[in-house]
Write a structure and sequence with these properties.
This protein is of the alpha+beta class. The chain folds into 2 domains: 154 residues, no CATH class; 102 residues, no CATH class. 49% of the residues lie in helices and 11% in strands. The chain contains 10 helices and 4 strands. Strands 1-2-4-3 form a 4-stranded antiparallel sheet, with helices on one face. A hairpin with a 2-residue loop joins strand 1 and strand 2. Helix 3 packs antiparallel against helix 4 and helix 8 packs across helix 9. It is elongated, with a radius of gyration of 20 Å.
Length: 269
């Protein structure tokens, strides 16, 4: 499939002027659901799902919903997920997206009816949960996944992801998003919720990620330093052999403010 349509200004419209949610979600080439279904590894599934969530919830009061769903996604999809668990979680993510789709379609129909009656008040977004889907025994997923759903759900509830593993997943996700941003793709908000952008200066592409929590500073900073030049809150770590660069990054991170801005110029462009 081609790249998904994550720009809300370009989303297809119905004859009544509302967003065509069915087409947006299900189009085989640019649909949000096929984009998620195309993921074949935990990191790809996690990044794709978070990007879709960020594109769907764009109101000023949607930040809480983005954070809640993103936390669910990152907790449910660690990099070291067992192979037999992956299709179950992937199916739950897809069904959650289709629940959002159906909810948006229903609200659009209600809005059209209100317009006919002379009222155009928009309703609430509604809350959605992937974890709740995993608890439903009547959830339908193709093939043998349906048979193992209840066991997988129980496994998840009894064996939650360790916080250190979850933090590492988020850091790896940000690194992947910054690498993707070099090509001009990806979302305008990264996996932690801060801004993500790329710019061209003196013939080189630089990727800037703002609003990264201090807890991720060292892991993200060392990951970026391995593949290019990095600045952390406008400070450049000292280059050195035998772990000298990592020690410099650690010192910068220890003295940094609670929110970090990374500026990264990759070696390979």
């Amino acid at each position: 499939m081609s790249e998904p349509n994550l720009n809300s200004y370009e989303w297809p419209k119905t004859a009544t002027g509302n967003i065509d949610w069915e087409l947006l979600f299900e189009d085989p080439e640019t649909g949000l659901v096929p984009y998620i279904e195309a993921a074949t590894a935990p990191m790809t599934l996690r990044l794709n799902a978070v990007q879709v969530i960020q594109s769907l919830f764009t109101r000023k009061d949607d930040e809480g919903e983005i954070e809640r769903l993103s936390e669910e996604i990152n907790e449910l999809i660690p990099d070291d997920m067992p192979e037999n668990r992956f299709p179950v979680i992937a199916g739950a993510v897809v069904q959650a997206m289709r629940e959002i789709k159906n909810y948006r379609i229903r609200k659009a129909e209600e809005f059209d009816a209100q317009k006919e009656e002379g009222s155009e008040r928009r309703g609430e977004r509604g809350q959605h949960s992937i974890k709740k889907l995993l608890r439903r025994r009547n959830m339908v997923i193709a093939g043998s996944v349906a048979a193992s759903l209840a066991a997988a759900a129980a496994f998840f509830m009894l064996a939650p992801v360790e916080k250190k593993v979850e933090a590492a997943n988020l850091s790896h996700g940000l690194l992947a998003q910054m690498q993707y941003a070099v090509s001009g793709g990806g979302p305008t908000k990264h996996i932690y919720g801060g801004t993500l952008r790329s710019e061209l200066q003196l013939g080189n592409i630089a990727v800037i990620a703002a609003g990264v929590p201090k807890s991720a500073c060292f892991e993200v900073g060392t990951g970026l330093a391995d593949t290019g030049r990095v600045m952390i809150n406008s400070l450049s770590p000292k280059l050195g052999m035998g772990g000298g660069t990592n020690k410099s990054i650690e010192q910068i991170c220890n003295k940094a403010s609670p929110k970090i801005t990374f500026r990264w110029v990759p070696d390979k462009q």
